[in-house]
Amino acid sequence: MITASNELATAGVSIAHLSKSFGDNLVLDDISMEVKPGSVTALIGPSGSGKSTLLRCVNLLETPDKGTITVGSTTIAAGSTVSERSLLALRRQVGMVFQSFNLFPHMTVLRNIAYPQEKILGRSKAEAEERAMTLLDRVGLKEKALQHPGRCSGGQQQRIAIVRALALNPRAMLFDEPTSALDPEVGVEVLAVMRELADSGMTMIVVTHEMQFARDVGDHLVVMADGHIIEEGDPAAIMADPAEERTKRFLSAVLDR
Fold it and tell me: Distance between CA atoms of 8 and 126, rounded to whole angstroms?
C-alpha cells in the first residue's frame, strides 16, 4: 500500500484566469479551477484541448501568459519575475508523471529515485536510497532496484517514475496520460498504483482517457475543449448525462471504442 507520507499535508491547487498562447495559437483561454486538498480531479477532453499544457503550467514547465497558480501557500502570478527560490518552492510541492517515463537509462532504478532526492532535498545517499527502497517495495518492484530501466517493462518503468516523484514528498501530484504509451494490460498495473495513491489522500490532477478510472477514482471531473473548460462536476453524473453537446460527442467516441 502506498501512503502519501509527506512532511507537510497534501495541498490544494487553485488556478485562476490562466491563459497561454504559443505564437498566434491560444491554447488556454481564461481557465479557472479549484482542486481541494486530498481530492482527485480528472481532466478529460479531445486531443489539442489544452489539458497537458494546463498541467505543465501548474509546475511552470510552461510559463502562462496570464493568471495565477497557487499550490498550498505558494502563489505564482503570470507576468511577474519568478525567483529561483519561488520556482523551487513550487516544484518541491508538485510531483509530475509524464506519458514517457523520462528515466535516466545509464542509472539503476535505485539511483533514478535516489539521485533527485540528493540534489533537490539535500538528503544523504543512504537516506535517499532507503526512501527509494521503501517505495519500490510498496509498488512491488524492490527486486528491480539494481537493474537499469531498459530491463524493465513499460508498466514497471511508469511505476518507477511514480515512485521517483513520490520520493520527493510532493503535496500534490500531476499525471499526464500516464497509461497512454502502455498496452491496456500493462496500464492496469499503473492505474492500481494511482488508485492506492488516491486512497492515501494525495491531491491529484490526472489527464486521462481512462474513463473508468476518471469515474470511479475521480472526485471531480473537468471536461476541456479548444482551450476552455466546457463542463465540470461529479464524474458519474457527467458521464451518465452530460449537459454539453461537445461533451456528449467526446464521451460517445471514447466509450464506444
Answer: 22
